[in-house]
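Risk register update: the risk of archive-format incompatibility is retired. Evidence:
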Amino acid sequence: MTAKIAIKKLGDKYFVFEAKDVEQLRTKHRIVGALNGTLPQFPLQNTFYGLPLILLPEEVELLVNRGWAHIIQKPSKTTTSTTMMQHREPHVTAIAHKQRKLNADVFDFFWSQGFYITSGVKFGGQFLLYPNDPMCVHSEYIVSVKQTKDQEVLPLEIIGMGRTATNVKKTFVLVAAAADQEQAETEDEQEKQEPSQMVCYSIEWAGF
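Archived output:
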């Protein structure tokens, strides 16, 4: 049985420090992450990076849920203040938790379709989807996650999404949970729905 990959949580970030684990994540599990360390022989440049590998929260959740990794976390001095803030703003905390859960479900959905997935922040979305390893091909889709399939999207936003995607030769995709997930009465009921069902809309700029 293959040993679980150790993911270290420092603050609100997740890191993998072992080269063999990074290789296993990419070749076996299609988890890309982003190298975040300085190369000892070339410290005065920012084109190439080395270990550790930093993971998205959605990548971590997928790995842990499938039993491929475990999280190592040291007690933090900020735990008390964070807990106090959560008690002061329970509504904000609940919204943030719901959005994180939705992002994780969307990540899992596209990962299950065979895509390699990275952060899409540079292109105005949550994720970028690659049909193969990002070292070999360019991404094809920019994914933006919406809380519901009926969430309002302004015309200017649609134009911006379409033009952005066209300029970088990609397709912009809006994705939200399907109706049956939105109507789930409890989070437990929602988590039992496997695989997660999503509604996707693609946007392409026609130029007229």
